[in-house]
């Protein structure tokens, strides 16, 4: 792997990297269909995974990918749309994912890969060890040079994340987690005004003795507008937003405020850090949430369905509510939130 990584580090433009990868024998190999595995083979693969080794590799990949992101200059000519003018993809998204895919498949050729830019309709998350990648979560922010952008990388086994890395290359905030080993934030810190800025690693949540959760009227809530602005799910979204923000005299919950920061992965991490109390989302995909999901739950938070009643959602279920760690109040705030969602809730079955 070393020579491959070094060859990418020598390149500064996303277009150069993408061109190099397209000519790689790895990509020709990756374009073939991965043969199916039996349940016994999958169990053997799962039991042999070294989570720490995967964690360290994903950090190395994320840091290099971060260099690609910050060195890129997204322009209108290099920006495309997937479904509408708010659903953007850039040359850099594609280049970063191809870089990640190449490095990971060199080390773990038998593992599955689920990525935003290489996703094909109908592909499902399976029990098999699967790397999950969002090369740039916050592409709209990236295009507008708004620095709330990250790469999100996870390994899932039996459809649950066991390693998660989220890295914002603009702030150099690195969130990391390994199943049953806690989650952490590594960030630059200056201890005194005259001291140099140095990276420091903090266990999450930042307040290791988080306060109880009160009601929604004492909460800071994260939401996202998404790229689909018509239809049933849009109606559910904006009606719920209005109830969250509205005054109590009109049946609203009068939350402290709503935050829409443009990155599902970083929203999950903000909940994990204890900076956001609740994040409610519909329409995201596994690559948006897998790494953040583990980072949150390892920090004592919980993930439930965005729709009422389901306390154990699937990672690829496309409906999520993330709640920060607290000694009390998690269940109560979930149930209060569920009570304001329009009948039927989100429907992403299509």
From TrEMBL:
Pfam family, one: Inositol_P
Gene3D superfamilies: 3.40.190.80, Fructose-1,6-Bisphosphatase, subunit A, domain 1
PROSITE patterns assigned: IMP_2 (PS00630)
Catalysed reactions, semicolon-separated: a myo-inositol phosphate + H2O = myo-inositol + phosphate
Keyword terms: Hydrolase, Magnesium, Metal-binding
EC numbers: 3.1.3.25
Pathway noted in the entry: Polyol metabolism; myo-inositol biosynthesis; myo-inositol from D-glucose 6-phosphate: step 2/2
Cofactor: Mg(2+)
GO molecular function list: inositol monophosphate 1-phosphatase activity; metal ion binding
EC class name: hydrolase
Source organism superkingdom: Eukaryota
Binding sites annotated in the UniProt record for Mg(2+): 116, 134, 136-137, 288
GO biological process: inositol biosynthetic process; phosphatidylinositol phosphate biosynthetic process; signal transduction
Keyword 4Fe-4S: no
Protein name, UniProt field: Inositol-1-monophosphatase
């Amino acid at each position: 792997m070393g020579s491959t990584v070094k060859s990418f580090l020598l390149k500064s433009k996303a277009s150069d990297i993408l061109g190099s990868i397209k000519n790689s024998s790895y990509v020709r190999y990756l374009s073939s269909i991965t043969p199916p595995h039996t349940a016994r083979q999958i169990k053997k693969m799962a039991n042999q995974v070294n989570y720490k080794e995967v964690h360290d590799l994903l950090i190395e990949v994320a840091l290099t990918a971060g260099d690609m992101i910050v060195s890129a200059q997204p322009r209108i000519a290099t920006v495309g749309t997937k479904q509408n003018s708010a659903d953007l993809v850039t040359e850099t998204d594609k280049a970063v994912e191809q870089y990640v895919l190449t490095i990971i498949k060199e080390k773990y050729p038998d593992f599955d890969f689920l990525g935003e830019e290489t996703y094909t309709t109908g592909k499902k998350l399976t029990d098999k060890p699967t790397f999950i990648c969002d090369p740039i979560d916050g592409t709209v922010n990236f295009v507008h040079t708004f620095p709330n952008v990250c790469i999100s990388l996870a390994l899932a086994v039996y459809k649950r994340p066991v390693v998660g890395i989220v890295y914002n290359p603009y702030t150099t905030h690195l969130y990391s987690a390994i199943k049953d080993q806690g989650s952490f934030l590594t960030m630059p810190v200056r201890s005194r005004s005259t001291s140099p800025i140095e990276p420091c690693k903090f266990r999450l949540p930042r307040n290791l003795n988080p306060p109880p959760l009160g009601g929604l009227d004492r909460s800071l809530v994260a939401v996202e507008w998404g790229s689909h602005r018509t239809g049933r799910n849009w109606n559910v979204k904006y009606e719920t937003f209005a109830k969250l923000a509205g005054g109590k005299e009109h049946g609203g919950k009068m939350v402290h405020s709503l935050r829409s920061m443009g990155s599902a992965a970083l929203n999950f991490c903000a909940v994990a850090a204890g900076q956001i109390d609740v994040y409610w989302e519909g329409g995201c995909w596994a690559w948006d949430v897998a790494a953040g999901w583990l980072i949150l739950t390892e920090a004592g938070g919980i993930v439930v369905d965005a729709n009422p009643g389901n306390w154990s959602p699937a990672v690829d279920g496309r409906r999520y509510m993330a709640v920060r760690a607290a000694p009390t109040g998690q269940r109560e705030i979930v149930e209060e939130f569920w009570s304001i969602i329009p009948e039927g809730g989100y429907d992403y079955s299509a």
